[in-house]
Amino acid sequence: MRKKLQCTIIGLIWLILLSIIDVSAAPLRIGIGSSKSLQEFQGMGCGAMFYEEHITSLAASNDEKRQQELYDDLFAKVNTRYLHLMIRATHEPENDNDDPLKPDFEARNFAYCEHTIAIAKAAKKRQPDIEFLATLLTPPAWMKTNNAESGGGEEKATLKPKMELEFAEYLWAFLQHMAGNDVPVHYLSIANEPDWPHDQPGCFFTPDDYAKLFDTVGDYLDRMAKLYPKVPKAQLVGPNTLSARAAARDYLPPLQRKAGKHLAVLAAHDYDMKGERWGDMRKLARDRPVWMTEWCSRDADTSPGQINAAMAYASAMHAGFNGGVNVWMAYDWVYPPRDGGEALVHVDWGKGYTLNKPYWAFRQWAEPLKPGMRIVECDVSEEDSKIEATAFLSADRMLVVHLTNNGHSDVAVQVGLRGGNGVPTRDC
Amino acid sequence: MSLCRSVYVGEMGSRPAIAKRTRTSATEDAKPLPAIEPKGKVYADTLPPRSLTTLVISER
Questions:
Q1: How far is B30 from chain A (nearest CA, A)?
Q2: Which of A409, A417, A420 has the CB atom closest to B41's CB atom?
Q3: Contact, A230 vs A153, CB < 8 A?
Q4: By CB distance 3.0 to 4.6 Å, which of A202, A289, A332, A412 could disulfide with A27?
């Protein structure tokens, strides 16, 4: 009996000791740099999609001071290189004529671009080197099999037969209008998530149909560049699928085969975060850049300032850069106030705006980065920890390390610098 | 004629370099924090829950 009591007491003492000595208190080790050479960082970006009028609503409500402050917060204080613009489906409500080589568009149908142009100019004023990527969500209803802007859901609405050149002309008309307003579009995506049967505005394309259309648009833009040299020719970005896995597995092989000469940038969204998707795209890219063109935190988030969404953004940026992307673009600068974490900033139409935690995390991430840096490999000592790390090294010997703690308690870390493959100096 | 060479992560600690810190958490918005002095080539920090910490290390 006495021996049993002794055993119990000893057991209790062990339990107490184990609870006092936090076995997790040993610092987590993070090694920066290894023998693996990773890709070049080329920039961060964000979009002005769907809610352009909210972005410009402060000026519309005669609060020019607050409007300029918002533009400063978006474009002067956040280090981005790309602004993602939306091409709507309304600037050709009916076919202008039957000759796609003779565009005859009416200026009044581009009224929606007034906000896009104001935003792009505000961005350019603050970041003269900023570049614009424009994406078409859907062609006009009259070009589509469902005669509607909706993607048709499971019906998978797509382009009507023999509409390919009209489709190309529609895209070119946007480029022309923007160029005519001193907003040259540098990059063009002919579709948005063509792999997904959207109910929202969208247009579905099979991988083969997408590749054929891409080739047709590429040839058309080459031809129009000769006919209209004042309209800068945009470089084509694709396939811009919802899933990077689908891009690498299904869309890029036929696209490279049929229209490889027109494909300047390999791009996809990252809403299907499985597998070595970015590594697979890198293998297909060879020397071309790989862009993550859209990601956002879509879950409802009522945490203070939406810190949960901010952590999700950081985690997605870790995944993108450690996976192999050169460029990472947040989905949207601005949404109206809501529980979802889709946008970095909430604008209460005409009244004011709130910089949410996702904004601060994105701003902090982008701030020290410079195009030309190299991503260098990070090793975190415990694979199941809540710690994520991404590091960037510049040729002028600046190292940036982003560390995220997704857990609910403090974590002590030791960041150690190793050797690793180098970044060429500027002399090279 | 200049020799083409590369910069390596390991070189970053060859001369004493401090790490400037910035943090976003539930209570901070991209807030600059006191810099960290390295011990050898190791930088120690404690990351609060639900936070993003950025270290910027450049040679002095």
A1: 6
A2: A417
A3: no
A4: A412
